[in-house]
Amino acid sequence: MKQYSIAVLPGDGIGPEVIAEAERMLMAVGDRFGIDFTLRRFPIGAAGVAAAGDPFPEETRAAVRRADAVLLGAVGDPSLDQAPRHLRPESGLLALRAQLGVYANLRPVQVFPALVDRSPLKADRLQDVDVLIVRELTGGLYYGEPRGREAGSAVNTLRYSAAEIKRVARVAFESARQRRGHVTSVDKANVLEVSQLWRETVTRVGQDYPDVQLDHLYVDTAAMRLVADPRAFDVLLTENMFGDILSDEAAVLVGSLGLLPSASLGEGAGLFEPIHGSAPDIAGGDVANPIGAIATVAMLLRQGLSLAEPAAAVEHAIWLALEQGARTRDIAEPSGPVLGTQAMGSRVAGLIAEAQRSGAPVTM
């Protein structure tokens, strides 16, 4: 029996609720495919501050170093918004990414046919939309030094090296080779010297991939085209902050931020998390959509552990649940039935188990 150790960091707000359903999927997959997943929970974010006075406690640091993969919920708590920087939940997230060295964040955006009517965009714009956003994750404004505030002013520094750009660009080009062979690199090279370096470096890397088409867009144009003509994109390559914003915008295409997963990859264990925030206003209400967290499990299986068939089983179960009309509040029809977080998780896990009993093949 294959054995894997997963460090589970539930996080804050709705994080523990949706991550509980992700854990349920791993157990269902383990039962179906004969895989032993050892899941151990550790605090991060506001939960880390509450438990150990640190948004990234030493116990958690040690655990993620030992794990085969890390499953993360959202972090964030309004009660700490005015806390010193080192006590803010987001500081724990940035430190986690830095420790793991996960420099490439993959955010797939695919429109489920059953949910076309949940997007504010017209259905004809959504047909065959399949975008992979590749976001650089450990550089740029979020990590740049110097930073800080003084009376009446503040500073953050946007900095990238050519080496940082090269390595994430290669991830984008390699991904495009497995898809439709098209990379669109996003920058602001008409204004920013860092973006000029970005464009020059990506262009040089692209010369090693003559089979992949490369074009460049300014970030404002890319934001417009992402909703005006999303089918034009295959792989969207972008720096840290631009990618953060564009991937949230992409949630408009699928109908809800609660549907989107992500994988953060580097040299060691991968970090896997839904892209939504901690949503403290609905925490504890059993209303959050767990599909993003469940789809994140599929990415953990495929990109993190090289378990393609189990990953496809999770993806198929999500697709089937939505085709059968399973809906959480954020994607429900105005007068249609609504499932809670746990009920949606139970529905998807049940479909994995039913496939096991019936011997149904993994298909999409």
Task: Explain the overall architecture.
By secondary structure, this protein is of the alpha/beta class. The protein has two domains: 1-107 and 259-364, Isopropylmalate Dehydrogenase (3-Layer(aba) Sandwich); 120-254, Isopropylmalate Dehydrogenase (3-Layer(aba) Sandwich). The protein is 42% helix and 17% strand. It has twelve helices and twelve strands. A ten-stranded mixed beta sheet has the order 2-1-3-12-11-4-5-10-8-9, sandwiched between helices. Strands 6-7 form a two-stranded antiparallel sheet. A hairpin with a 4-residue loop joins strand 11 and strand 12 (270-272).
Number of domains: 2
Poorly predicted parts = none
User: What about the largest sheet?
Assistant: 10 strands, mixed
- Helix percent band: 40-55%
Calculate the mean pLDDT score and round it.
Answer: 95
- Morphology: globular
- The strand count comes to 12
Number of helices: 12
State the end-to-end CA separation: 26 Å
Radius of gyration: 20 Å
Please identify, by name, the CATH architecture of the largest domain. 3-Layer(aba) Sandwich
What is the CATH superfamily of the largest domain? Isopropylmalate Dehydrogenase
